[in-house]
Design goal:
With about 130 residues, the protein is α+β, with helices and mostly antiparallel strands. It is about 40% helix and about 35% strand. The mean pLDDT is about 95.
Length: about 130
C-alpha cells in the first residue's frame, strides 16, 4: 500500500488532510483529531487519536476499567493512558500485498471513531 493511496483514502473519507513534517498526516473526523503515522517498515501503519480525553482528577479505578473494557471489547484498538493524564487510542495494522487502501483505511477510521465514543461513554464524558 503506497502512502499516496492511504492519504487519498483519508481525504475521500474525511476531507482535508494536513502534513505533519517528519511525522505523518493529521485530519479530523466527527470533530476528533486523528493522526496517520507511517511505520518505519513500509508494511506497518498506525492511526491514532492522540489526547482523546484528559482524565487527571477522574477516579483512577473508573479510568482503568474504561480502558480495559475498551481494549477487551473493541477489536484492533489499543487504548492507553499517557503520563500526561491523557488517553490515546491506537490502531496498528500490518498491510498485506493483496489488501487495498480503499478497503482498510475507512475501516480503521471508523473503528477508532467507534472506540472513542465507546471509551468516552464508559468514562461518562459524553
Amino acid at each position: 500500500m503506497r502512502q499516496e493511496e492511504i492519504v487519498n483514502e483519508i481525504r475521500k473519507k474525511c476531507g482535508n488532510v494536513k502534513t505533519l513534517p517528519l511525522i505523518g498526516w493529521h485530519f479530523t473526523y466527527h470533530g476528533r483529531y486523528f493522526v496517520y503515522l507511517p511505520g518505519e517498515n513500509e508494511n506497518m501503519i498506525r492511526f491514532c487519536i492522540p489526547y482523546l480525553a484528559k482524565v487527571n482528577g477522574t477516579d483512577a479505578r473508573v479510568v482503568s476499567e474504561a480502558i480495559n473494557e475498551t481494549n477487551r471489547n473493541v477489536k484492533f484498538i489499543k487504548a492507553v493512558k499517557l503520563d500526561s493524564g491523557n488517553i490515546s487510542l491506537d490502531y496498528d495494522h500490518k498491510t498485506a500485498s493483496d489488501e487495498s487502501a480503499e478497503a482498510i483505511i475507512p475501516h480503521i477510521i471508523d473503528a477508532l471513531d467507534f472506540a472513542s465514543t465507546y471509551l468516552l461513554d464508559k468514562l461518562k464524558m459524553i
